Amino acid sequence: MLSLNELVEGQQVYVIYQNPHTPTVSTIQEATIARDPENPEMLSLLLYDFYHPIEEDDAIFATYESAELLYNQFIM
Fold it and tell me: For each of the chain's 76 residues, which pLDDT tens digit applies?
């Protein structure tokens, strides 16, 4: 997992995303690290054309394979 200080604007990352409409459904999704348009000092996840604030407990990975490893351990 990547820590907050390893993230840079424009970086492609992978996150384990929980469907807000179906809480029992999670998938691995590609996202981009971007400046938050409402708070340009903050980085956010650009996912599905929405900016999501990055929180300390977010599971952010550099590769799909590393995300899949954790996903398989805890979700499957």
Answer: 999 899 999 999 999 988 888 878 889 999 999 999 999 999 999 999 999 999 888 899 999 999 999 999 987 5
What is the C-alpha end-to-end distance of the chain, expressed in Å? 18
Q: Helix, strand or coil for residue 62?
A: coil
Indicate the pTM of the whole model. 0.87
C-beta separation of 17 from 69 below 8 A: no
Which residues make Cβ contacts (< 8 Å) with residue 14, sequence separation at least 6? 28, 29, 30, 31, 60, 61, 62, 63, 64, 66, 67
